[in-house]
Amino acid sequence: MHRRPIVMSFALALFAFAPLPAAWAQNAAVTLQWTAPGDDGNTGTATQYEVRVSTSPITSGNFAAATLVPNPPAPQAAGTSQSMLVGGLQAATNYWIAIRTADERGNWSVISNVVAFTTSAGDTVRPAAPALATSGTGASSVTLAWVATGDDSLAGVAHHYEIRWSTAPITPANFAAATLVTSGVPTPAAPGANQSCTVTGLNRNVDLWFAMRVVDENANASALSNVVLVDHLLDTAPPATPAGLAASLQPGGVRLQWTPNSEADLAGLPSDVGHQVFWAGPQSDTQLEFSSDETGNVHLRYLTGDAEAGDPNQSFLNIGSYPFAGAYEATRKLANGPNVVKITEHGGVGFYDPANPYSVIIAWPSQPDLQVEVYDPEKNRSLEFVRSGDIVPVS
What we know:
Elements: E1 10-14, E2 28-35, E3 48-54, E4 67-68, E5 81-89, E6 94-102, E7 115-118, E8 133-137, E9 142-147, E10 160-166, E11 179-180, E12 194-199, E13 208-215, E14 228-230, E15 243-250, E16 253-259, H1 269-273, E17 278-279, E18 286-292, E19 298-304, E20 317-323, H2 327-335, E21 341-345, E22 348-352, E23 359-363, E24 370-375, H3 381-388, E25 392-393
Antiparallel strand pairs: 1-2, 2-5, 3-4, 3-6, 6-7, 8-9, 9-12, 10-11, 10-13, 13-14, 15-16, 17-25, 18-19, 19-20, 20-24, 21-22, 22-23, 23-24
């Protein structure tokens, strides 16, 4: 003989906690507490619970019409204290809640006592916006600094920071589209504490804008901080002195030859052509040739031997920088296409044709409208250049 389970009375209390699932982030929650009944009366272990909540009083007659609360816990042995979190409730709202129990044969208990409660108005106070500043810069990094605000304006401790940067001015309207900083961001400290974050992997050859928000445990975000502009690095060092100058008589003139500078002075080139330009750094026993066309494509060739500028021979290392809208996305899609080998090197994505391993196409998300081609007449050498990290913006 199977008797219906008996539900013991339970206590209900508002619950303060963090974090809630995203869908509940700005809603109220309560914790139900009760003593587990048994499978047969007050002995054994029941099979399941059914919890329902309503904004109207619950009775045994309308219990089934109330809103079912998902994912109740499994019943424990009779007499065990149990609880569950009920989220997704609206703030400042009257609610009624009740529970019943079933055994393995589907015998349901009568409903428990009905508990009425009113949710609080909820946390609607957002953190205060921080004042952002720079405390240091490096060749590829920027260190940001600020004073911690609070969870509720200037009180309490916030949940997390959201820091973003862009190569264009940041506004509240485009903040979410800027690049999110995912590494090195500290956990918010008590109000008044000095905090900082170093953003690495940046291209300092372009101007950069930074901004941040403070977010509390209920997803209330502060207003946007002030926007910090970090100017691109300026080339203040003169070129190295050329060495090994030699002259030889040629029909109609004199031919001059010399060893190239240890660092080619190309810092002004991006400004001249209107976009970033990549190269392979200084290469010994070479002369660097620059050329461009009306579309903005730029080629830097490393001439060897007695080759002169304009030499039609294709047996030289050649770095091409090709500007066009959506270059990074186009390269990424092609890299996932057929008959090519995809590569992901130094934050970039690219590809090459295994049947023609002399040219590698690559692009970087930091340069979304620029595609780079590395060509070398020696088989697989262009791939070695890309993998070594030697293909970098001119500086």
